[in-house]
Structure formats: C-alpha cells, structure tokens
Design brief:
The chain is mainly alpha-helical. The protein contains 22 helices and no strands. It starts with a helix and ends with a helix.
C-alpha cells in the first residue's frame, strides 16, 4: 500500500473534526461567549496574565503540548502495525484530544485561569482538588525530568542540533521585543523562520560538543544542569519576553516541517513496508489493548495537554471564542504530526523491504525519536532532493526544540502548582515565584541525579509510569469538564464517553504495569502506581457523589 492513502484518509478525518465536530462542540456544548471577560483581560499583569493574539497563543500552546511525545509514541506503537496506530491517532484527535484540550482551556477560562486541579474544587470539592494536584505534580515531575534527559541526550548524540537549538532562543528574544512594540506579525514570522533555518544550516556544518569531564561530570550530565538553569530563568520571565515568541517560531517551524514531510509523500509516493497488523511479535510483547492507548498519548489524547490548557494558555486567552482555535486546532496539529510520524517509520524511506522493517522493529520499544529522524530525513531527501545531512539536522532540531518548549512550560506549570499550594495551605514561601521555581527545578534535579547517579538519567526511572498516569489524568480532566457541563445543564455525553474509555484503558494499563513492577521488585514504581490508582478512584467516587447529589436536588417536584 502506498503511504499517500494513509495520509489522505487521516487528513480527511481531521478535516471533518475541525470544520464540523469542533464547531458543534463550540456552539452547542461549550457555548463560547464572545463578550465573556477572560482572565487574561481581567487580571492582566504583564507577566503570566497577558491577552495574546490567537495565532501567537496557538504557537505557544501547540509547541508546549507537543514536545517529542507525538513523535516517540506513534514511532513505538507502529510495532503492532500501522492500522491500529492510524485509527487511534485519527479518531483520538477528533473525538478525544480536541474535546479534552479545548474543554480544559474553556473550563479554566471560566474559573479565573485556575489550573484544572485547583478548579476541580469549585466543580467537585476540596478533597478532589488535593488528590488531583498530586497526580498533576507527578506528571509534571516526570515530563520535566525526562525531557531534560532526552534533550541532553540529543545534544550529545546529535551535536549538529546544539547551535540551532540555542540560536532559536536568541531569535525568540528579539522577536518578543519587536512583537511587544507591535511590529508586523507576518514579517516577523517570515524573518524568524528564515533565521532559524539558517542556523540549522550552520549547525549542520559546525557541530558543538561539551568537553569531557567538565565540572567532573559527563557532557550528558552537564547539559541537564544547563537546561534546568535555563528553564528556571525562562519560567520566571514574562510570557511575552521568551515563552510566546519562542513557541510561535517553533509553531511556524512545525508548518515548514510538516510541509516538507507531507510534500515528500506526494512527491515520492513511498510504499509502506510495515505490516497492517504485526504477526511477528516477540512472546514478551505487550498486548495491543490496552497498551496502544497509553503508548500513543500526545497525538490522540494526553493529560499533560489539560495542564497546559489550564496552566499557561488560559491566562493568555484574549477572547473566549479563540479557545476553539487554540485548543482544538492545536490538537489537529499534534494529530497531523503523529500521522506523518507513522508514515515516516512505516515506509520505504526507513526500510526498503518488510524484512528490513522487522529487523528494525525486532521488539517493542526499540524504535523512537531516532527512528523518526532517520526515516523522515530520508523521506524528505527522496522527495525534495535536500542533502540528508541537512534534513537529519532539521528534524533533530525540531525534536529538541519541541522538547525544550515543553520543558520551559512544564517548569512554569510546576511553579504555578507550588504557588497554588502556597495559597491553599497558607505557606508563604511557596507563594513567591523565585522560591516556587527553585523548588520545582530542585525536585527535577533530585530525581535526575538522585535516582540516576552522576549520569543524571534518574528521570527515566519513573518514566514507565508516565503513559498510564498521563492518560488517567486526561480521564480525570474530562471528568471535571463533564461535571461542570452537568451543573450548567448542558449535554455531557460528548466528554463523558471519551472519559469512560480513557479511564478504563489507562487504569487497566496501570494495573498491568503494577504487576510487572511488583514481579521485578521495583518498589518505588509500585508505590507511585498505587498512589495514582487510588487517587483516581477516589476522584471518580467524589465526582459520582456530586453528580448524584446535584441531580437529586434538581429533580422536578
């Protein structure tokens, strides 16, 4: 089968999602109000609450939620065959991710920009808030610690990406100042993207590496420290200085990258080497159900997106009607990236024959971002004739920049959570931005180096739990939105049905993982897994209690 058929089927589904389904959700379910005063306007402080152009905000939101996950997850999941991966990405984007991300953004905007954990108190109750925020903090800890390790590893393995990755920060700082002075957005977009791609070309010529043994540590460990120092500084700057322009430029880079990747499919018409359903799996391979639904998270539905929607994006939403474009359309961007990733790792650009493909995918988990870079770079080279050294640097930079922007936002979101704890529990030191940031970064570094030793790889210790924990968080977010809709007298089935499916599959996956951790004697992961499962169960019971009480109170006499 030719890859163009996968692309056409997937994009046709997403086109329906954007033009039909998202409009229905916006007008009939969330009922967006153009006159509603958003938190960005009500609490405008020039730092975190900043009314923002919807195109700039889309760039921030998309690149914050994307990271490397819509690449890594699909690249791994193709192990089961390309059909399950394509179906879950397409249907998940339309009916799960779009509704979830859009809904979290809308719900937070309606509750003064509170995070989904904090606003759950208003919707369900105090106990729910406390439980919810524990899961959120664990997800952020996993994301920040692991993405720091992933980016550091990318810098060590692909030194060509170092120069463009850091150049993007300098470009963003300049564009942020110019945007703040109302320079033309279109011109700045073109100039910014040109500067970024020029730096990619320079990076392909001049790789940069840290010296071995600097500060008595390996290059990988030094990069982790540098990245967290940078993330701490970036998370305390006003959003318009670096966060918004960097994410916007990365969003523009995504459009260029997607244009090159999708264009390559139409130009070279590569065949698919991967099987529709893999019948050559190893005996120890995990089952398709439920593991597919936690392996592909970003690109189908992800709890981390709800944290971003209700954490940074809701504080920058200028008009409530912009929420559809920012939330749902960003989900479309993630879905399209996940879809082309599936094509890149399934096609002849990666493996000329099915036999070679099976050698690459000899067992579950062997593929990942590197597989995407290899297959995608060759696909662009085959289609456009660009040297593979340039295309591989381009895609490696794209992965590093996406992971970096997620890390920037993740540390800022951790700061928000700690500051909210300060407000809730009356801890003055937690309320201060610098102290909250220091606590956030320290917790990530303690995990990275405390559990991983001098290599700094400790973030990977709890990563096996991320998939199920992240999806449980998505289900809990949909649960909060559903209760909110019920209380407002609006149809809730469009959020409740996805919520039931996500909670069922993710809890099932968490139980499977729990048994694996128990058998391996990994008591840290056993403990965290049990905490997440018990917490989610208590939140569900609280929500059922609130819904029952509300319906009893509002029965007609």
């Amino acid at each position: 089968m030719q890859s163009i058929m996968i692309v056409l089927m997937g994009l046709a589904g997403m086109t329906f999602g954007w033009f039909v389904y998202s409009k229905f959700i916006a007008t009939k379910i969330y009922q967006l109000d153009p006159d509603f005063v958003t938190p960005a306007n009500e609490f405008n402080d020039g730092v975190d609450y900043v009314p923002t152009n919807k195109f700039v905000l889309w760039g921030h939101h998309f690149t914050s939620v994307a990271g490397a996950a819509p690449i890594v997850g699909p690249a791994i999941a193709v192990y089961w065959g390309w059909v399950p991966a394509v179906l879950w990405v397409t249907l998940g984007t339309i009916f799960f991710a779009g509704v979830h991300d859009f809904g979290a953004l809308w719900a937070s905007s309606r509750h003064k920009g509170k995070s989904i954990g904090a606003l759950s108190e208003d919707v369900i109750g105090k106990r729910t808030r406390a439980l919810f925020m524990v899961v959120i903090f664990l997800v952020l800890l996993m994301v920040n610690a692991v993405f720091g390790v992933v980016i550091a590893g990318a810098f060590v393995s692909t030194p060509n990406a170092v120069f463009p990755a850091w150049s993007a920060i300098a470009v963003a700082l300049i564009i942020g100042q110019l945007l703040h002075r109302n320079f033309n957005l279109t011109i700045l977009s073109v100039v910014g993207v040109m500067a970024l791609y020029f730096s990619i070309y320079i990076g392909s010529l001049f790789p940069l590496e840290l010296p071995e043994g600097m500060l008595g540590l390996s290059p990988n460990a030094n990069w982790i420290i540098i990245l967290f120092v940078y993330a701490a500084i970036a998370s305390m700057l006003p959003v318009w200085v670096l966060l918004q322009p960097r994410d916007f430029i990365n969003g523009m880079q995504l459009f260029v990258g997607l244009f090159l990747l999708y264009g390559a499919v139409f130009l070279s018409l590569p065949d698919i080497s991967a099987p529709a359903f893999n019948n050559q799996m190893t005996e120890d391979a995990p089952s398709l159900v439920p593991l597919l639904f936690v392996t592909i998270a970003c690109g189908a539905v992800s709890g981390f997106h709800g944290i971003v929607s209700s954490g940074t994006s809701s504080k920058q939403l200028d008009k409530e009607t912009d929420a559809r474009f920012v939330g749902y359309f960003a989900a479309m961007g993630e879905g399209s990236l996940a879809l082309i990733t599936i094509v890149a790792v399934s096609g002849a650009a990666l493996a000329a024959t099915p036999e070679i493909w099976h050698e690459i995918y000899d067992k579950y988990g062997t593929a990942g971002a590197g597989t995407f870079i290899q297959g995608g770079a060759q696909m662009i080279t085959d289609g456009w004739g660009i040297p593979v050294s340039v295309t591989s640097t381009l895609l490696a930079t794209m992965v590093a920049l996406f992971a970096g922007t997620t890390m920037d936002s993740g540390v800022r979101l951790q700061r928000y959570i700690i500051q909210e704890w300060g407000d809730i529990y009356g801890i003055p030191i937690f309320k201060k931005g610098f102290a909250a940031t220091l606590i956030a970064v320290t917790s990530c570094l303690l995990l990275a180096f405390g559990a991983g030793g001098a290599s700094g790889s400790g973030g990977l210790t709890i990563w096996p739990l991320f998939g199920s924990t992240n999806q449980i968080l998505a289900g809990m977010t949909l649960l909060v939105i559903s209760v909110m809709l019920i209380k407002m007298g609006r149809p809730a089935k469009y959020t409740m049905l996805p919520m039931i499916f996500v909670l069922f599959t993710s809890c099932w996956a968490a139980i499977i993982k729990l048994m694996e951790f128990w058998a391996a004697g990994n008591w840290l992961l056993v403990t965290i897994d049990i905490v997440v499962l018990v917490t989610s169960l208590l939140v569900i019971l609280e929500a059922i209690s609130v819904i029952s009480a509300y319906r009893n109170e509002n029965k007609p006499s």
